[in-house]
Every structure is written in C-alpha cells, then in structure tokens.
Amino acid sequence: MSIRIGVIGTGSISEFHLSSYAANKSSEVYAICDLNRERAEAVAAKFGASKVFTDYNELLADPDVDAVSICTWNNTHAEISIAALEAGKHVLVEKPLCRTVEEALQIQETVRKTGKKLMVGYVRRYDPNAMMLNSFVEEGEFGDLYFAKASYIRRMGNPGGWFSDKSRSGGGPVIDIGVHVIDLCWYLMGRPKVKSVSANEYKHLGNRANVKHLTRYMAADYNAEQNDVEDMANALIRFENGASLLVDVSFSLHSVKDEGIVKLFGTKGGFEIDPAVVMVTEKHDTIMNISPQTDSSGLQIGRAFQSEIDHFVDCIVNDKQPISPVEDGVEVMKILCAIYESAAKGAEVTFS
Asked: Closest by alpha carbon to 333, among 117, 107, 118, 110?
C-alpha cells in the first residue's frame, strides 16, 4: 500500500518532508502546492510528483491524495488543517500547530469529528537521542523529573520576512524556536498539565540588518523593515504535579555565541540533550557522568525528520495513534500563548 502525499508549501522546511517521504517505501510524493507555481513545478519535477497546484483547496479536492504535510506560514495552519481533515485527508502540520488556543481547539474538534489522523511536527521528539532518552525515562532511570532548563539563544538570528511579521508567524523566537525545546522538555517530563506561566519579553534590538561580517539565514521574503516580534523572552512554567521548566529564547541578543542547552533533572538522576547527550546518576555512593555510545551525541535533524515522516506514514497504514497528537498541540499552544500573555500583562498567568 502506497500513501499518496500532498505537500502544501515549498519553503525551506518542506525539503525535509519531501526527501523523507521519498525515502519511505510506503509513501509517494503525489502532489505539490505553492502560491508560486514556478517553484511548485520545480519541486514537483525534483521529487516526481504527478500534480501541481497553487490553490490548496484544489489539492484537497483531489480524491487520490491520502494525506498532506502542511509547511506553510503559521497563520494558515489552522484553516488548512481543518479543510484537509474535512476533505478526508490525514494531516502532518508543521510546528507550531497554529497561533492561538482557540484555533488549536477548533482543530482538535475537527480531528475528533472526522476521525482522521493529525500529527503535529514536533520533530525534536523523533531525534534518535531524544527517543533513546525517553526510553530511559519510561523505565524510571531518572526517577521523577521535576525540573528542566532550556535555552535556545541566537545572537543574530532573526530570519526576517514572514518570521518577523506577527500577523503571519504569531510571534518571534518563542513560537518559532522556543516551541521545539518547550515541547521536548514537556514531553520528556511526562506531559504534565500546565498550572501557571510567568514570562518577560523584550523588543530592543530588532532586525539588526546593519551588522556586517556575519552571514545569517534570511527568509525568502526577507524585509529588514518588517519586524514586530520579540527579540527574546524568558519564562518560568509551573505544572500541576509540582515540576517546573525554565526557558529563554532569542532571535537577537548581545551574546558571545549562539547556544542550545536542554537539561532535565530527576530524583534518581538527570541528563542533558543539548549541546550533547550525557546522563548523570549515582552508583555506590559515587556520582557518575555517563556518555551513551551513539552515532552522534548531538541533534541529527535529517534522521529526526525521517523518523517523524516514517511514524506518520506508519500511523496511517497501520491505524496507530501518533506520539505527537493534536491534544499535545493544544497543551503546547496553551503554554506558548500564556508566555505572550504574561509578558504583555507583566503578571503571572494561571490555569484553573
């Protein structure tokens, strides 16, 4: 059985989806959709897709499409996801699920109404090291995980374009890169219910197009004048089970270097994921730092996307539930939106 896939949006992230589907023996890249027909046709030619569309509604009307990957601007995630589900398609939607909790709840209701699969693209869950560590967590190796610390700092990493246009992105580093480490920590901590969020955000540095001698990633629609998202934000997230997560993220910060740090601490031990995997435990009254012998101690993004796509296809073929379902998308959106709300109010946001 071959699952015929439609990929909607051909920006940079779609390349990971397309190459992973191409390498999956149970799927076929069948249709490509992008507002830019020339770009869509070039991608279709590269991956052997039969159909090209510029209107996603026409792609969804094609009865031969079984499932879609949504790789578009964040402000279209909800409407396309809902339309795809109602058209009888299974959905893999890139992170973040959407922009608001209200949108997330609408998507969740449509999933339940249609009975179709929807998987959120929390790709960090599918990295080989994260999956390995999760198996240790599930076996109780670290005891109860009660504190996590995540930092995703770019000193000059504002991509501009739609990324820095809040109407399309929903926000800056919190919703773009913060979502990765917030979800990863929350997932490994056992997905506890959020109790409260206290956050700050800052908008002092902006795009910094003036900086010379350093290259940067630029969005396809880069425009240095368009920037109404935060430079950086930090937050303390408390959970109902007493655990907490401390996070800080930035697009732009006067930092010596870019940094990615993810650490989790439990009653029997702890571990770090970024920048490299290491475990900490006690044996015979001695503290031990343990370095697992794996192919790579760091993030393997290509393998993570392949694992994500393989899981999505497997869920469709064998009627399984995804490990990053819409319900998780709703909970993570609650956290992301509470960070922005708390920062705007200058006060803690609590959940009943």
From this structure: 107
